[in-house]
Amino acid sequence: xxxxxxxxxxxxxxxxxxxxxxxxxxxxxxxxxxxxxxxxxxxxxxxxxxxxxxxxxxxxxxxxxxxxxxxxxxxxxxxxxxxxxxxxxxxxxxxxxxxxxxxxxxxxxxxxxxxxxxxxxxxxxxxxxxxxxxxxxxxxxxxxxxxxxxxxxxxxxxxxxxxxxxxxxxxxxxxxxxxxxxxxxxxxxxxxxxxxxxxxxxxxxxxxxxxxxxxxxxxxxxxxxxxxxxxxxxxxxxxxxxxxxxxxxxxxxxxxxxxxxxxxxxxxxxxxxxxxxxxxxxxxxxxxxxxxxxxxxxxxxxxxxxxxxxxxxxxxxxxx
Length: 320
Known about the structure:
Strand order of the largest sheet: 1-2-3-4-5-6-7-8
Largest sheet: 8 strands, parallel, barrel
CATH architecture: Alpha-Beta Barrel
Strand content: 5-15%
Radius of gyration: 19 Å
Shape: globular
Mean pLDDT: 96
CATH superfamily: Aldolase class I
Helix content: 40-55%
Number of domains: 1
Number of helices: 14
Order of helices and strands: HEHEHHHEHEHEHEHHEHEHHH
Number of strands: 8
Structural class: alpha/beta
CATH class: Alpha Beta
């Protein structure tokens, strides 16, 4: 049995891609997208029709020139999400524009818009997770959305305080970024090699997972942003693992025993429940240089790729 097949018995496997062919091949339960993945998919010839469809819909709304590309971008993400849902039995995650990461009201409005667009396509909200950056403002937006039964996936999560705030807000799912945490430590410390059990990204997710299970939080932990199969296997048993096609292929083509390392009934290091407020959240975030750096960088990178996608849409719109 391949390592991927064994892993599927321990954790829910999610495809970290917007490419339909990869989803067909690996048959994950769920799929996640983000602006970078959408822009990558949009450049493939097979997706040109989806872009045109999104633009034509946006034009039909009589939107102003400033609004048209935003509408087309949201519609493209929904069209692609709908297509993905033809091949996964669970959910697809669709991300709110990263430029709204520090605006609670605008994030809520954009999330409601995305859900409405899915409903127009005949897709119920039960099959959608709205991805929001785990800023303080994003977490407060998610808290309100969850109360409206719009379930959320809080992304760009790098710190324990982000995770605790999400759980206390009743967020459905968080995506702690394993690989990007490791990237920071390799770039900013003298240590360049880590055993899987000592990998700072792996240790971060393990701490969060154990804390959630110990204190009976219902928030799902979905480890993300992996750099190697070793990182993935070190988190076998985590609620969910979202994995790129390249690493899914490595796991599928490799055999060997996989051990379930995260188990809710075998937590040996109890953690005291912590309270937090906005001021505590901001202070703890400020004290964590890695989390502050990577959150800001992630928002900038997603924004860059969102703008690239919008430029592509604008170019096509001018040709129609």
